[in-house]
Structure formats: C-alpha cells, structure tokens
Amino acid sequence: MNVFRLAGDMMHLLSIVVLLLKITGIKSCRGISLKTQELYLLVFITRYLDIFTNFVSLYNTVMKLVFLGTSSAIVYYMRYDRIIKLTYDKEQDTFKYLLLVAPSAVLALATSHVYTVLEVLWTFSIYLEAVAIMPQLVLLQRTQNIDNLTGNYVFLLGSYRGLYILNWIYRFFTEKHYRQWLVWTCGVVQTIIYCDFFYYYFLSWQNNEKLALPA
Amino acid sequence: SAPSPAKDEL
C-alpha cells in the first residue's frame, strides 16, 4: 500500500468521524442528505459482500467492517433517533434514488467483467459510488448557513477521491498489470463532480467567509 | 479468462 492510498483511506475515515461527531455531538443532521448516506450504505454492502471470502489483509477487513458499521449507524441516527431525525431536511432532500441506482445497475449488467452475482454487484458499487454524492451536493446548494462540519465533511470526502487518483497513478507506474479502466473512469468522474464544491470551499476559506454554494 | 479487476482497494 502506498502513501496516497493510506492518506485517501484516512481522509475517508476522518470524513465519517466528522459526520458522526456532528450528528451525535450537536444532535443535528441539518444539511446532511439521508439519500447520499443510504446510497453509500448500499455501495458498501454491494462491494464488501466478499468480506469473508476474499481476504486481502487485516487492514482491509477491519476498514470494510468500519465503513459498514459507521454508515449503518449514520443511517440509523438520521432515520430513527427521536431527536436527530427531527433535524433532517426531508423536504429539501428530494433527489430521486432511481436516477442514480437505475443507470448504475444497467451499466453494471452491461459491463461486468464476469457474470456472477458478486462481480455484477461489485461493478454496480463502483458506478454508484461515483454519483452517490449528488443528492448531498444538491442539498448543500439549498442549505443556507452551511455549518463548518458539513462543509468539512464534503471536503474530506472529496480529498479521499482525489488521493485515490494519485494512488492509481502511482500504482500504474510501479505495478505491472495494473489496468483498471472501469475503476479509473468512475473515480475521475466522481472527483470531477466535486470540482465545483472545491472551488467555493477554497473561496470561502480564502476570504474567511462562511461557505455558500450558489444555486 | 482475463484477469479480474484488483479487489485490494476499499
């Protein structure tokens, strides 16, 4: 494992910690899209079905369990915690699941490497992860007074994707037979989706102003 | 068959 991959994973982990801190600490999930969180849970479930059959390393197994556990907890808090669920912006979080899930499913069926249930679901998870942030970005646009934790959450998540691209570039030049067009394409698409957000994030940071995305 | 995409990332 190279330093970019490790840093990327740590950013991912940190983004989840920041989100959980916000949700449990201030008992509010204001500005957080439940749809994006549920899509991430679906991404992790469909991707990590091989958790007990395909052992790579203790690190990988532990991280998979952590991602499954924390994303379940986040969805649970937002849906069922009697205080936290009151702070969810349900009326604003209107992005349609089907708009993201259906194309991902069709593409997975059309492009899967082999046609086994595990492989098709894994491919589906790669496509879905690329677009799962979209409900969150739309909600962010509609949210007035985005708090720091929410802004930092999305920033950390975007950084994780950016670092994974550096990881792939590094692996491309250091490993033989490291050719993963599907993963690379989806990863680049996913990172491009964040570009607009990054622009306004840095702008607000530079001007020392509160983050606001133009509608 | 062609090599399966690497599943060593998260």
From TrEMBL, chain A:
Source organism, top-level taxon: Eukaryota
Originating organism: Tetradesmus obliquus (Green alga)
Predominant subcellular localization, coarse grouping: endoplasmic reticulum
Membrane topology note: Multi-pass membrane protein
Protein name as it appears in the record: ER lumen protein-retaining receptor
Keyword terms of this UniProt record: Endoplasmic reticulum, ER-Golgi transport, Membrane, Protein transport, Receptor, Transmembrane, Transmembrane helix, Transport
Alphabetized InterPro entries for the sequence: ER_ret_rcpt
Compartment list: Endoplasmic reticulum membrane
Transmembrane segments: 55-77, 97-115, 121-140, 152-170, 182-202
One of the protein's GO biological processes: protein retention in ER lumen
PANTHER family xrefs: ER LUMEN PROTEIN RETAINING RECEPTOR
GO MF, one example: ER retention sequence binding
PROSITE patterns the UniProt entry points to: ER_LUMEN_RECEPTOR_1 (PS00951), ER_LUMEN_RECEPTOR_2 (PS00952)
Family affiliation: Belongs to the ERD2 family.
Any one GO CC term of the record: endoplasmic reticulum membrane
